[in-house]
Specification:
With 252 residues, this protein is of the alpha/beta class. The chain has a single domain, classed as NAD(P)-binding Rossmann-like Domain (Rossmann fold, 3-Layer(aba) Sandwich). Helix content is 42%, strand content 17%. The chain has eight helices and seven strands, in the order E-H-E-H-E-H-E-H-E-H-E-H-H-H-E. It has a seven-stranded parallel beta sheet, with helices on both faces. The protein is globular, with a radius of gyration of 17 Å. The N and C termini lie far apart (45 Å).
Length: 252
């Protein structure tokens, strides 16, 4: 029996890398995407292969909406060449960008970039990938704790993620006939290089955010990846249309 295959966008580093590796540890193969650092992507592929799973890295720039059709063609080609398959099983829409910008300073250009990467791109990549997604598959989108609690400077980011949360519910409703579940995972503050390593490089911010959590710390990448991997397993087959916040209880 052939292995099930996951596609993890933005899987070369940070949260996406841990998602990809955690999914491989569950016994699944992984296609991951990279935008600017091909070397990191191939290092992640090697780590997955060291776990005994097959993996491949593809280029994807979610800010270039017009590139989605070519990306889908590349996915089709890689599936055929690497797995002798024409479909995959799990779509994890993780690729993202970050910026802390006060509402009064947001430009139309910034808004459009966030729209393409975090909502329009996710919406239509999912639509274009559907013919390649096996019945009984899983769609897992990534949101943020800041759709529940407000952080100044995140109005654009959180608004787009809020849109994806609603989109996720509609996917669950409209794709249920194919046995495809759709859920969204919302991390709280996580110490990675996201948003120019805003938390990692700012001890004062890290300390403040840690104080808001009952567990007394910010998140790590491996706090998130395992939850995404779990949603790919049979143990999660009855979870559908849900927003799952993985934030250590911050701001409860």
């Amino acid at each position: 029996m052939s292995s099930k295959i996951a596609l993890v966008t933005g899987g070369s580093r940070g949260l996406g890398k841990d998602m990809a590796i955690s999914i491989a540890k569950k016994g699944f193969d992984v296609m991951l995407t990279w935008r600017s650092n091909e070397e990191l992507a191939h290092e992640t592929v090697k780590e997955i292969e060291a776990l005994g799973r097959n993996a491949a890295a593809l280029h994807l720039d979610m800010s270039r909406f017009e590139s989605l059709d070519l990306f889908i063609k590349n996915v089709t080609s890689v599936l055929q060449q690497k797995w002798n398959a024409d479909k995959f099983d799990f779509l994890i829409n993780n690729a993202g960008m970050g910026a802390t910008v006060p509402f009064t300073n947001v430009t139309e250009e910034l808004f459009t970039d966030f729209l393409n990467v975090h909502f329009k791109g996710v919406y239509f990549l999912t639509q274009k990938a559907l013919p390649l997604l096996n019945d009984g598959g899983r769609i897992i989108n990534i949101s943020t704790g800041t759709t529940r609690f407000c952080v100044p400077g995140y109005s654009v980011y959180a608004s787009m993620k809020g849109a994806v949360e609603i989109f996720t519910k509609y996917l669950a409703k409209e794709l249920g006939a194919r046995g495809i579940t759709s859920n969204i995972v919302a991390p709280g503050p996580v110490e990675t290089d996201f948003n120019s390593a805003a938390i990692r490089s700012n001890p004062q911010m890290k300390g403040f955010l840690s104080s808001l959590s009952p567990l007394g710390r910010v998140g790590n990448a491996d706090d998130i990846g395992g939850v995404v991997a779990f949603l790919c397993t049979e143990d999660a087959k009855w979870i559908n249309g849900q927003r799952i916040e993985v934030s250590g209880g911050i701001n409860q």
